[in-house]
Write a structure and sequence with these properties.
alpha/beta, Glucose Oxidase, domain 1, eight-stranded mixed β-sheet
Length: 605
């Protein structure tokens, strides 16, 4: 139970709504859990294939079937900075498993694309769909049924949600997520943003822009701004799928390696072969999902999770809605100021007290469920700690989270929040449903009423900006960017341009069926508009010059046109064939044809 009745009420309605699907899900994983891993019942040929490449000790243990075998799902590649540290993890995990008499095998590699590389490029149109590909690739690896538990090596945007969907699909297996940690701090994020805007205005050249970007993204680890990747790590900890205090420890440090060894030992201790069996499907219940949403709001996290959390919950038979997310935002105070909601980065957040401080504050305020089952074994209060290296240089010790923030400008208490609410809201009106993140938008800019300017491609908006055609108040309607149209790419290419116009004193806003995600900044943006334009949604009936009202305070999004006239309009249906080929997009035609709506998780499942 939480102390806040509103949290309880929202949790109860999610539980009631989900009862049929959740009960069916639990029945499935209990049946599978009772069966146990199939190693002991595989034919000799099957089993021989499963350990053919192992050494003699591992072969002996696997053939006996009496000791646990840990499956490693890795999203390693050495182009993606956040995932490059994972190159070393499988050997650390295997050695740790052997030291406790167990075995570990890499079960599968999964794709891991970098949205930072593909921003504004054709490849970004595969990004959202990569989440479901990752879930399917994980399923292929785990389908060998050789494993008693699994550890998941992933950090970034679509990767962790895809891994969670798979972990819950195989919910009879215990699961622990092992992060790589953020890169050390580089060029401050506000300075990077300033250079981007100067480049957009033509005041600095490409050499200055590349130098700034290179100083920002300069080494192994997660990008340090609080986007989807770092929101993922927060979620895995507050939902009980990390070991406590492990989210934001820098890569390639003794503490990082010690946490990896600890996570391995813990995963091996919670299999059905022991006395602490903790299947992932029981860790992620309605309370854990609500805890995740509360954590998202308290930290000003990524709007991508208005889709990912819905899809992740659905994999466990839980029906989460945008209304739930919006209502939880109204209850949750904003306790963190991390870029783009402030000047600090995640290293500053961690140094100020990090996840342990945040979890304790929310628990003390009664805003989190403590009585949850976690991979660590205790309730959530066990996560109100900070992890440190033991005096032996190998083990992890934990102390209670500090009572005082190390930097009140970055991380504050629940009694003195930066805002009384989390700042992610659902918008409704005659244009359908949408999401807005207002935590980084100044209050005086949260309501915009202005004529529409219509674009069907973000490059068209840039061309209009370069031509000087946007020096006025307007609402940019960038449509046919939804999952059915082109895979719902992020539209961050627009952020510097609209930011420049805002700084010039114009009242501007964005309305789109595409995404902006965790780096959404100071421009009011109604995103994930549903139904999308390709599905004939009302956004497809907006005409150039129509008056649009976006009210981030009241939670409304409307076109101010006579209702009968608006309803009589035929939706535009431009030629989208240019989005169907190149960079692998032709391989995803089936995804575009079957994908669900954004408010249902934009999933193909």
């Amino acid at each position: 139970m939480t102390a806040d009745r509103r949290i309880e009420e929202i949790t109860d309605r999610i539980r009631e709504r989900s009862a049929p699907t959740r009960d069916a899900y639990l029945a499935r994983i209990r049946r599978k859990g009772a069966d146990g891993p199939k190693r002991s019942t595989l034919t000799c040929g099957n089993l021989a294939h499963g350990f053919a490449a192992c050494g003699p000790t591992d072969k002996a243990r696997l053939s006996e079937g009496a000791t646990p075998n840990l499956g490693i799902i890795t999203a390693y590649n050495d182009m993606l900075s956040a995932h490059q540290p994972f190159e070393r993890y499988p050997e650390i995990i295997r050695e740790t498993a052997r030291s406790v008499g167990a075995t570990a095998q890499v079960a599968s590699g999964v794709p891991a694309m970098c949205d930072g590389v593909t921003q504004g490029q054709a490849g970004m149109e595969l990004s959202l769909f990569s989440r479901d590909v990752i879930a399917m690739a994980t399923a292929v690896g785990l389908s060998h049924d050789m494993f008693d538990a699994a550890v998941y090596l992933g950090v970034c945007d679509k990767i962790v949600p895809g891994l969670v969907i798979a972990a819950l699909t195989f919910g009879h297996l215990p699961a622990i997520f092992i992060p790589a940690g953020p890169m050390t701090s580089g060029l401050p994020n506000d300075e990077k943003s300033r250079i981007r805007q100067l480049y957009a205005e033509g005041k600095v050249g490409r050499d200055a822009l590349l130098e700034a970007e290179s100083k920002s993204y300069h080494g192994p680890g997660t990008c340090t701004f609080y986007g989807t990747a770092n929101s993922n790590q927060m979620l895995m900890e507050i939902m009980g799928l990390h070991t406590p205090g492990s989210s934001f420890i820098n890569p390639n440090t003794p503490l990082r390696d010690a946490l990896t060894r600890e996570a391995t030992r813990r995963a091996l201790s919670i299999t059905a072969l022991g006395n602490e069996y903790t299947p992932a499907g029981l860790v992620v219940d309605e309370r854990a999902v609500v805890n995740g949403v509360v954590g998202l709001h308290a930290t000003g996290g990524s709007t991508n999770h208005t889709m990912h959390l819905v899809a992740m919950a659905a994999a466990a038979g839980i029906k989460l809605s945008w209304q739930d997310i919006s209502d939880l935002s109204d209850v949750t105070p904003l306790l963190a100021r991390v870029y783009p909601n402030g000047l600090a980065d995640v290293n500053h957040f961690n140094a100020a007290g990090g996840m342990g401080f945040l979890i304790r504050e929310l628990l003390d305020r009664g805003l989190l469920h403590d009585d949850v089952r976690t991979a660590w074994g205790a309730g959530l209060r066990a996560y109100a700690v900070e992890a440190k290296l033991g005096i032996d240089g190998q083990s992890v010790i934990r102390a209670d989270a500090p009572r005082d923030s190390g930097d009140p400008k970055v991380l504050t208490t629940a009694d003195q929040p930066f805002s009384s609410n989390g700042g992610v809201r659902m918008l409704t009106g005659n244009l359908g449903k949408a999401v807005i993140k207002v935590s980084a938008v100044k209050p005086e800019r949260r309501v915009v009423e202005a004529p529409a300017k219509i674009f069907h491609d973000q490059n068209d908006l840039k061309a209009a900006f370069d031509a000087g055609d946007l020096n006025t108040d307007f609402v940019a309607v960038v449509r046919f960017q939804g999952p059915q149209s082109n895979g719902m790419p992020e539209l961050h290419k627009l952020t510097p341009l609209l930011g420049v116009l805002l700084d010039r004193g114009h009242r501007v806003a964005l309305v789109t069926d595409g995404r902006m995600s965790g780096a959404s900044g100071k421009v009011p943006a109604a995103i994930h508009v549903t139904p999308e334009a390709k599905a004939g949604g009302p956004i497809a009936r907006i005409r150039e010059g129509d008056l649009i009202r976006l009210d981030g305070e009241a939670g409304t999004l409307e076109v101010l046109v006579d209702a009968a006239e608006f309803e009589a309009r035929m939706p535009e249906q431009p030629d989208l064939s240019a989005n169907e080929f190149g960079m692998g997009r032709e391989l995803f035609a089936a995804f575009r044809a079957t994908v669900g709506t954004a408010d249902q998780g934009a999933s193909v499942f």
